Amino acid sequence: MEICLYQQDIGFYSSGKTRTGTQGDFLTPVSTGPVLGQLLSLQITELAQSLRNPTSLHLAEQGADQGHLALDILSSLAQSAPHLLSSLHLHLIEPSPVLAQQQKHSLQPFLSKITIHWHPDLASLPSLSHPTYFYSCELLDSFPVRMIRFFTGQWHERFVTRISDRWVWIDQPASPELLTEIHRWSIPPIEGFTAEIRLPISPWLTLLSEKIEQGAVLTLDYGLPAADLYHPSRSAGTLVALRKHTSASDPLSCPGEQDLTAHLNFSQLVEDGLKLGFQSYGPHPFMTALTRQAAPLLHDSQPLPEKWTRNFQHLVHPNFFGQTHLALLQTKNLPASFRPSMFST
Ligand SMILES: C[S@@+](CC[C@H](N)C(=O)[O-])C[C@H]1O[C@@H](n2cnc3c(N)ncnc32)[C@H](O)[C@@H]1O
Q1: Could you tell me if the CB of 138 is within 6 A of ligand 1?
Q2: Together in a domain, 189 and 329
Q3: Mean pLDDT calculated for residue range 229-239
Q4: Which pTM does this prediction carry?
Q5: Percent share of the chain, pLDDT over 90
Q6: Is residue 140 within 6 Å of ligand 1 at its C-beta?
Q7: Which residue's CA is the closest to the ligand 1 atom numbered 19?
């Protein structure tokens, strides 16, 4: 999965080809329009207010693709909270030079207004002693997974090998490392049960926690709590291959030309976060989280433009992103006065 997605120049994401949006291979909440960025800007304003508008506020995004979400957030802040702009620093964590260039192009209107830093990986992000708001959309589902399968009374790991001119699965007994995870998430030992385990999440969150002294980490992605993700009814796992807005039948075909993705185990983020000192809000589905965040706009006496409403519907309607996508906010060392309205009842 790592090679197919990230191999330099030829990986699905490193080739520089357009992957998201109608011209690409799949839609993401970001590609539906600027409303998601507008809603996140409201959350950033709430964070800044709880910190009494600090002199320096760092925003950081990983997996920003063409930089549209960052642009939408900054454009919205420029309108609704212009006093914050002078305190902002934006960090984009982007390993692909082609995408970093596209982000620079998208963010052109802000290059002279705020400081924007690019980092090739999370390790290169400096430790941030100022309050930080780290956000990502559909980043973690593209972190590589390991596949497991239970048959003949034991757990196996699924590997890939080449026979004649075809890539095929080959199963070997699961390693102790994977057995520990299988036990941790009580994955049911049912004949034929297949699932994914994403090991890189824990080191990623640990590193992030080392970088952020005070602030919030917002994760937007599709996924489920462990009890649902590994429910006996979900026996075929969640790995899918996507190409040109269609799911492909074989994840092993056309390496580098189709996206490979699997659902996020949100319990893993919450549990690991608690151990690292984060407080969790959610995860809640977009239909509740984003509707709560949008409440001041929805209750405004001015009618909202039709384009805005259509964009919002895409985000919260259960047939689009409303039910599949969840929002999780993990905060660290924030004042008790911070009450994110995205998660308030
Ligand atoms: C599904 S796309 C989502 C793009 C965008 N955030 C959106 O929501 O439209 C996943 C993105 O995550 C990026 N990505 C995956 N692993 C990454 C990593 N370790 N560091 C930075 N970006 C990464 C990919 O290159 C790709 O641009």
Answers
A1: yes
A2: no
A3: 96
A4: 0.97
A5: 88
A6: no
A7: 121
